[in-house]
Design goal:
Layout (H helix, E strand, L loop, with lengths): L4 H5 L7 E4 L6 E5 L4 H20 L2 H17 L1 H12 L8 H14 L8 E5 L3 E9 L2 E5 L5 H14 L3 E5 L5 H11 L8 E3 L4 H9 L5 E5 L2 H12 L4 E5 L4 E5 L5 H13 L9 E7 H17 L18 H16 L3 E4 L15 E4 L6 H4 L6 E7 L2 H8 L4 E2 L1 E5 L3 H8 L6 E4 L14 E2 L2 E2 L4 H6 L2 E9 L5
Parallel strand pairs: 5-6, 5-8, 6-7, 8-9, 10-11, 10-16, 11-14, 13-14, 16-17
Antiparallel strand pairs: 1-2, 3-4, 4-20, 9-19, 12-13, 15-18
Helix pairs in contact: 3-5, 4-5, 4-7, 5-6, 8-9, 10-11
GO molecular function: oxidoreductase activity, acting on the aldehyde or oxo group of donors, NAD or NADP as acceptor
InterPro entries: Ald_DH/histidinol_DH, Ald_DH_C, Ald_DH_CS_CYS, Ald_DH_CS_GLU, Ald_DH_N, Aldehyde_DH_dom, LUC3-like
Family: Belongs to the aldehyde dehydrogenase family.
Length: about 475
């Protein structure tokens, strides 16, 4: 009999908490909910393992991370199926198989930047170097939308830099993260990576624990603020990737048919459940009807359904709480006079949290569907007459994770991009993150960056070593 990953990680029959498939309502498995005592034990184990892990040296740690990437690829289909069942995202499209593949790719990407000591002054009189040391044990708290991939974003740079990691996954998608860690740990020493599934109290205890040197968090602004407060007493380092409400601006020289697919997937990747998805789109009067028409056609024809069915590329909203938020925002927009071009009418008898891909036109910029992050499959399209007004509207919220500009003119697009208040501005694409390019938010969307050499260095302690020339080598 072949033992599955799920059998390794789930709670024994009759114990733990059930996790259900948001597409079917079927039970996926049972998660063993940890206690504060379990968390404390995991942190002590990680603290004991960290000096040995750091002492391996960078080259050996790189070998282990690449071996972990190999292990993920060997279990890719099993991981993707579990992810699809627990999170709801389809196997195909930019979804479950894509996410598992990204886990392996991001692990490898974390091994490539040079993090050797740097000589920053050597003028014959003074020599100064910067060395990058491990921090210790890092706590990672992840979300439910990309549970595996974002876990790798958190753990890979920390492991590369010699830290050990204790992770607390979302209560909605713990099995995916437990399974991922089970695979990665086949390439790591004991105690280097531990997952502690639990509720809010476990996350709060992780953020406040004196044995944790840094917290990495991806999730809502409100939860991020609570974690920052919890971490303050012990002056922890934090990297916060918080909520966004990303704006896209279409310029008046764009071709609606040419940009429609990029716009659609910028908004509807993972059925709209992505922090850096396109969540409000500004279109000039001259192109407004054409862009609305192109996006409505795609929304009406892109297949949505149970994730294990190979034909589907849009899935359910992961949990009913988020479903209700999306449904309420669309309903209120319609009541206010906005025009729902497609979608907006879910089947009340449908099994699962399926909300149709929805395009909303003729909507005011101050409408709640525009001003609040919907985090689901509903895109408001706002008409503008003045580009300056569109830029002001795009910058008008106290969030700034990502933004995008759509134009065939590189110079025009760049000029507008540099006026937008966001951590990343894409041109003729949206949400196209790259492991080589630093990624982080502005304003209330967080601080600190992930990815690339800059992201690695944020997982370390910079130590300056300075003396007279010739006093050390």
């Amino acid at each position: 009999m072949v033992t599955t990953l799920l059998e390794h990680i789930q709670a024994p029959a009759g114990t733990g908490r059930p996790i259900t498939d948001p597409a079917t309502g079927d039970e996926v498995g049972r998660v063993p909910d940890a206690t504060i005592a379990d968390l404390a034990a995991a942190i002590e184990t990680a603290r004991a393992a960290q000096p040995r892990w750091a002492a391996l040296g960078d080259a050996k740690r790189v070998e282990r991370l690449n071996a972990a990437a190999d292990a993920i690829e060997a279990k890719a289909e099993e991981l993707a199926v579990l992810l699809s069942r627990e999170q709801g995202k389809p196997l195909n499209g930019p979804n479950a198989r894509f996410e598992v593949g990204a886990c392996a790719a991001w692990l490898r990407a974390a091994t490539t930047p040079d993090v050797s000591p740097e000589v920053i002054v050597d003028d014959g009189q003074v020599r100064a170097e910067i060395h990058y040391r491990p921090l210790g044990v890092v706590g990672a708290i992840g979300p439910w939308n990309w549970p595996m991939m974002i876990s790798v974003w958190q753990l890979a740079p920390n492991l590369r830099m010699g830290n050990t990691v204790v992770m607390k996954p979302s209560e909605y998608t713990p099995l995916s993260v437990l399974a991922l860690a089970q695979v990665i740990n086949t390439a790591l020493p004991d105690g280097v990576l531990t997952v502690v599934p639990g509720g809010r109290e476990v996350g709060e205890a992780l953020a406040a624990h004196t044995g944790i040197a840094k917290i990495m968090f991806t999730g809502s602004i409100a939860t991020g603020q609570a974690i920052i407060r919890s971490s303050a007493e012990t002056v922890k380092r934090v990297t916060m990737e918080l909520g966004g409400n990303d704006a896209g601006i279409v310029l008046d020289d764009a071709d609606p048919a040419a940009i429609a697919e990029g716009l659609f997937w910028g908004a509807f990747i993972n059925t709209g459940q992505t922090c850096a998805a396109l969540k409000r789109l500004y279109v000039p009067d001259t192109l407004y009807d054409a862009v609305c028409e192109e996006l409505a056609k795609l929304a009406a024809t892109t297949p949505m359904g149970v994730g294990l069915a190979e034909e589907n590329v849009l899935g359910p909203i992961q949990n009913r709480k988020q479903y209700d938020i999306v449904a309420s925002l669309v309903q209120e927009a319609r009541r206010s006079g906005a025009k729902v071009l497609v979608g907006g009418d879910p089947d009340p008898d449908a099994v699962g949290n399926f909300y149709p891909a929805t395009i909303v036109a003729e909507i005011d910029n101050d409408n709640a569907l525009v001003a609040q992050e919907q985090f689901g499959p509903a895109l408001p399209i706002i008409r503008y007459s003045s580009l300056d007004q569109a830029i002001a509207w795009a910058n008008g919220l106290d969030v700034g994770l990502g933004a995008s500009v759509w134009s065939p003119s590189p110079q025009r697009a760049r000029d507008v991009a540099l006026q937008l208040q966001a951590g990343t501005v894409w041109v003729n694409e949206h949400g196209a993150i790259d492991p080589r390019v630093p990624f982080g938010g502005s304003k209330s969307s967080g601080y600190g960056v992930e990815f690339g050499r800059e992201g690695l260095l944020e997982c370390s302690q910079a130590v300056s070593v300075k003396g007279s020339a010739g006093s050390f080598v």
